[in-house]
Amino acid sequence: MLPEINDRISELIGNAFREAAAQNLLPPVSLPSVELKIPREKGHGDLASNIAMKVASRVKRSPVETAKIIASLIEKRISRKTIISRVEADPRKGFLNFTVTPGAFHDALRHLLRVPGHWGESRAGEGEKVLLEFVSANPTGPLTVAHGRQAAVGDVLANLLAKAGYRVSREYYLNDRGRQMKILGESVYLRWRELRGEEVDLPADYYQGDYIIGLARRILEGGLKPAGRELSELPPEEAIDYCGTFASGALLEMIKKELRDFGVEMETWVSESELVAEGRVTAVLRDLAARGSTYEKDGALWFRSSAYGDEKDRVLRKKNGDLTYISSDIAYHREKYGRGYSEMIDFWGPDHHGYIARLKGAMKALGLNPARLDIIIVQLSTLYEGKKKLSMSTRMGEFISLRQVLDKVGKDAARYFFVRRRKESHLDFDLELARKKTNDNPVYYVQYAHARINSIFKKFRAVTGRPLPDFTKIDLACLSEPAELELIKKLVLFPGVVKTAALTHQNHLIPAYLEELAAIFHSYYNHCRVITDDPDLTAARLALARATQLVISEGLSILGVSAPDSM
RNA sequence: GCGCCUGUAGCUCAGUCGGAUAGAGCAUCUGCCUUCUAAGCAGAGGGUCGCAGGUUCGAAUCCUGCCAGGCGUACCA
């Protein structure tokens, strides 16, 4: 609806400039695209344009003078049919300030009520396929808080892009082979021996967490026997392999459950070991070699990444014959390109940012367009309990897991807090605040508005003994209080916020918008009673409350947060 | 050294393509429940937008240099 209002005003401005040229008031100029902003100050109307300032030098008049000429021409065109009721030239800077008619806002509100659940959708994505890959943690331990934020940020952006008309899928890339998996197997194996009464020495770079002991105990007490043989009868190499396979399988199941409990559903899981088994890694190394992008040095195979923007060349295959992580990652990303996505988005932690150049370089070396691959670095979070900072040492297994955060604050608060700040910003996450049931807590503040509206509906049914009216058939013209028009204006903005957030990957715009909307509603609630003696006014206000509820629940559903009917 | 991110009110942070007197929440102070949920509302105080230049009619925003913090700079992942 707002785009329509924008278009109509742009048209008025364009016509006024042509008219000014025809009457020799201003020289003819080609106009830049008209930008309309919502002024902060209430006295500046509903929408403002800076066009007079933009063209001032070209028309050889001051911005204020230009604005005055244009405003007076537009003013003459104002009638009952136009979307604006007033235009004013700001005498200090040269803004053109427009006041939109209440009728235009009522039309927008009526439209919203006719498309419940679809307000906020757009076709900006034109059905293009987008793949979002996130979390992708090694199955070597529980998900951490860092994974939690990536999961929330990735999942919410996926929801946003879907709203904006993209065909979205979510994917988890499973690093289920290589050095870390071997260490996992050895860690569990050592703990298993320890449980059997042996003295063992767990090297510092092995996995230290208690969950490793838990896995070892499951092997021991469950009497798990690989191929019918006792683990103790196997040669250590085989026993370690078995422990690794068992542990990564169990941990993967745990990760899947954690993600489900966090509200994240991956469409696809891609396994690194399968990519290797299918020969995709050797194939990609061969193709890089064929393109002259590799060379042998010191017994290792190198990728000429410095020729593609990286600061130095990188090893693909180590001296001992093992593949490095980048080799399978190159193969994995080429495989993704082959699936026909117009855009692929990876979410990584900040410790991986040095990796971007070499991966994009590899895509370029393979003749693929690196611009289709967008790597988003999600900054870390520091957890607090009030003022107390919580320890975060992963090495000692002392980290707070995503599971613990979920247990402490619940899915709604966790997801909301993770996306509330720009993903580029380091996040201070106060668990105590997230748990509070007061207005300091933004999640509750927004959810409360939704529940409160529901309670108005309940009251209406109880008092009148009638069901809610059909909101699509209500005369909204009596909504004329400033507080009502302000609320409608905010509702009308929602689709634009969703679109901007999706296209610029700025999830945090949604919580910010919802908090502003909730504030306007709470203020309105204190200012005007919905249920009054006037049945027409009551119906119109119920409709406005319903529209607010629809937008809040749609906004929260983008965040994957529930919209409770009562609190 | 080089690369990426960050620096805005006491604290946590918004600020879209450069636009009007830089905004919000928390914290502090003052009010509002016989009426739809006080998990709410109304109001007050609080600023050298890290520093210095530059571009511009106009800079928190763009450019350059510097300062501070975080992360990275592996034949680990």
Brief sketch in words of this structure:
With 567 residues, this protein is of the alpha/beta class. Helices cover 50% and strands 12% of the residues. It folds into three domains: 5-100, Arginyl tRNA synthetase N-terminal domain (Gyrase A, domain 2, 2-Layer Sandwich), CATH 3.30.1360; 134-274 and 379-435, 3-Layer(aba) Sandwich (Rossmann fold), CATH 3.40.50; 442-559, Isoleucyl-tRNA Synthetase, Domain 1 (Orthogonal Bundle), CATH 1.10.730.
Question: Layout of helices and strands, plus pairs?
Answer:
Elements lengths: L1 H21 L13 E2 L9 E3 L1 H9 L3 H15 L6 E6 L6 E5 L1 H13 L14 E5 L11 H19 L3 E8 L4 H17 L14 H12 L14 H26 L6 E4 H6 L2 H11 L3 E4 L2 E4 L10 E4 L7 H13 L5 E6 L7 H10 L7 E5 L3 E5 L2 E2 L12 H19 L6 E4 H5 L6 H23 L17 H22 L5 H19 L7 H25 L8
Parallel strand pairs: 5-6, 5-11, 6-7, 11-12, 13-15
Antiparallel strand pairs: 1-2, 2-4, 3-4, 8-9, 9-10, 13-14
The protein binds one RNA strand of 77 nucleotides through helix 2, strand 9, strand 10, helix 11 and helix 15.
